[in-house]
Design brief:
The chain is an alpha/beta fold and about 375 residues long. The chain has a single domain (about 5-355), classed as 2-enoyl-CoA Hydratase, Chain A, domain 1, CATH 3.90.226.10. The protein has helices at about 30-45, 65-75, 85-100, 115-125, 155, 165-170, 180-185, 195-205, 210-220, 230-235, 235-245, 250-255, 260-270, 275-290, 295-310, 315-325, 340-345; strands spanning about 5-10, 15-20, 50-55, 60, 105-110, 115, 130-135, 140, 190. The strands form two sheets. Strands 1-2-3-5-7-9 form a six-stranded mixed β-sheet, sandwiched between helices. Helix 1 packs parallel to helix 3 and helix 6 (about 165-170) runs antiparallel to helix 14. About 50% of the residues are buried.
Length: about 375
């Protein structure tokens, strides 16, 4: 077992505690494997009626994948196609699929930072999930900030948001908080951090057949603290839908440039800091995934991530953000105007025959 993943069973609830606080619980390959093995072991265990996943730290639920690992392994070979990278993304995406179709209630307490891979292990699932946010929640899919795209099923769950909110979040990488998350259908209930001890006591002693029912009843008393009027996404929803519709990054940026509101100016300034190519690739990903199944979205993303490391944009993004920390990535191409359709389409070229795809087994 990983020293960064703690598991226990309490009152017929399998409890998973992410415990890598110094790295904000960034997922390593070892952690992915322990999570997968644990959930598989609990899958058909009649003693376990629900799964609850949380963090030992108030700072972060999970900040994503271990991007320093990506850089270190990705630079070992000229094209970054190390077997360890291959294993990480294949196994992480398979874990996302396992969670998505988990047959028991799957409850995630997204306290603190929840980004990237952390979203993958919290957003997966529809019929079984319950996603809890707090006043400390800082949620994002910030991959375009490091030259990547919103993976771990982002092509699926960002498309489950209302209007063009998913496009806005994917292309800007902006951080949202609890009210925004609930408004965007990226969270279900709000519980203040002062009530987390009471939540854990509820888990330990509840008698409901479905733990989610007990938690929803408990959280109802705090619903007025997190109503839509507290959401900036709700406030700017019309503007977001106006500017982020369509299939062209160039047109989206031109639309924002023609709007002299502070929101539009701030949004455009943010986008000019992101990878121009990966913003365009992200937009194409989100449009292609609108009518795809979870498995097909993950298979598409697995193909895309191989192209990302071959291109090298993600390695440059991680270098600038984490390694050298100069925050001055040299994007290729450097501007949105230089991005071509051919550059975008290269990220969607099939790498494997369908029968040999690493995720071919996903139903």
């Amino acid at each position: 077992m990983s020293s960064h993943v703690i598991t226990e069973i309490r009152n017929h609830v399998g409890i998973i505690t992410l415990d890598r606080p110094k790295a904000l619980n960034s997922l390593s390959l070892d952690m992915v494997r322990v999570l997968t093995a644990t959930l598989r072991a609990w899958h058909n265990d009649p003693n376990i009626r629900a799964v609850f996943i949380h963090s030992s730290s108030e700072k972060a639920f999970c900040a994503g994948g271990d991007i320093r690992f990506f850089y270190d392994v990705g630079t070992l070979t000229p094209k970054g196609d190390s077997a360890l990278l291959e294993d990480f993304f294949t196994e992480e995406y398979a874990l996302n699929h396992l969670i998505h179709f988990y047959p028991k209630p799957y409850i995630a307490l997204m306290n603190g930072v929840v980004m990237g891979g952390g979203m993958g292990i919290a957003q997966s699932g529809v019929a079984s999930r319950l996603r809890i946010v707090t006043e400390r929640t800082k949620m994002a899919m910030p991959e375009v900030n490091i030259g990547l795209f919103p993976d771990v099923g982002g092509g699926y769950f960002l498309n489950q948001t209302s209007g063009e909110i998913g496009s806005y979040l994917g292309l800007t990488g902006e951080i949202i908080q609890a009210a925004d998350a609930i408004y965007a259908n990226l969270a279900d209930v709000y519980i203040p951090t002062t009530q987390i001890p009471a939540l854990m006591d509820l888990i330990a002693h509840h008698t409901e057949a479905d733990l989610r029912v007990a938690i929803r009843q408990f959280s109802a008393q705090f619903a007025s603290d997190i109503s839509p009027e507290h959401s900036q996404l709700a406030q700017y929803r019309t503007t977001i839908d106006q500017h982020f519709s369509g299939n062209s990054l160039h047109n989206i940026c031109a639309s924002l440039a023609g709007d002299d509101t502070e929101f539009a100016k701030k949004t455009l300034a943010t986008m000019h800091k992101r990878s121009p190519l990966l913003m365009a690739v992200t937009l194409e990903q989100l449009r292609r995934c609108q009518s795809r199944s979870v498995a097909d979205c993950l298979r598409l993303e697995r193909t895309m991530v191989r192209h990302c490391f071959k291109h090298g944009e993600v390695l440059e993004g991680v270098r600038a953000l984490v390694v050298d920390k100069d925050n001055m990535p040299k994007w290729s191409p450097a501007t949105i105007a230089e991005v071509t359709e051919e550059m975008i389409s290269d990220f969607f070229v099939e790498v494997w025959p369908s029968y040999a795809h690493p995720l071919a087994h996903l139903p």
